[in-house]
Amino acid sequence: MNEIGIAEADINAVVEGIKRLGSDVQGFGTVDPAWARPPAVLVIDCVLSLNRKYDGFVVPRLDAFVNENPKIRKVRDLAKLIASYPTPHAFMQQELNYNYEDRANTLHSVVEFVCKIVEEMPNVPEEDVLKQWAIQAKPEDYQTLNIKGFGIAGFQYLRMLFGADTTKPDVHIIRFVSKILDRNVSAIEALHLLEASSERLGLSVRDVDTYIWEISARPQQNFVDTNLVRLDPDVAAAFPNEKAVNEALRSVLKKRNKKK
Questions:
Q1: Burial class (CB in 10 A: 0-12, 13-18, 19+), 126
Q2: Which helix (H) or strand (E) holds 190?
Q3: What is the mean pLDDT of residues 222-251?
Q4: pLDDT for 184-207, tens place per residue?
Q5: DSSP type of residue 125
Q6: Which end of the chain offers a freer environment for a tag, N or C, measured as fewer CB atoms within 10 Å?
Q7: In angstroms, rounded to a whole number, what is the distance separating the alpha carbons of residues 157 and 153?
Q8: Is residue 224 part of a domain?
């Protein structure tokens, strides 16, 4: 065991698992457009993306919000906009086309939390204050928020969006680490393992996280057991999952073997 209480053998195993992802992981997260959005939109991104499809559900709503509210860039302005509606739920229905009261209340609470951070340094630009907070915060700090529906994965994603080089232990990260170790791991264990392994490889943890999420969201790509193969969009669209790809390839192999 090391200073963060995880086995060296587990770190080494995850290091090898990251290596098998290939060289494309280097610098991958730095090109993600999510990091360049204004703070107000980043907070919406963080809450809206909880357990929802990012490209199909979150991105269209973020784009629509930005188009309709180009002046809402600061979190404090977002708080004022939410307050202009009878309830956070009404805001979410009108501005984000999302009828989910609990999620609206979560967004409202997270906005209030971020506003308190900004208010501590009123003469410093929001982006700088929030980046400083994100870097200094610890994963365990999420427990102090006590916001319903906003756990460690959401808290860590908020830190990432504001500039911290860390990972969010969502289902994709936990599944990735669990598959490598051939056992179930907790969210905090997956987080520490990915951080420690990325550091040993000299990689940005955020880059590794983003790359794992990207390839995990596409079932036709098996990124742990085999070499990564990228399918062209038209080919990928014809196969809904990994099983369909394998069945098609087996069919081709059978036909080829019959011809021999």
A1: buried
A2: helix 187-201
A3: 59
A4: 999 999 999 999 999 999 999 999
A5: -
A6: C
A7: 6
A8: no
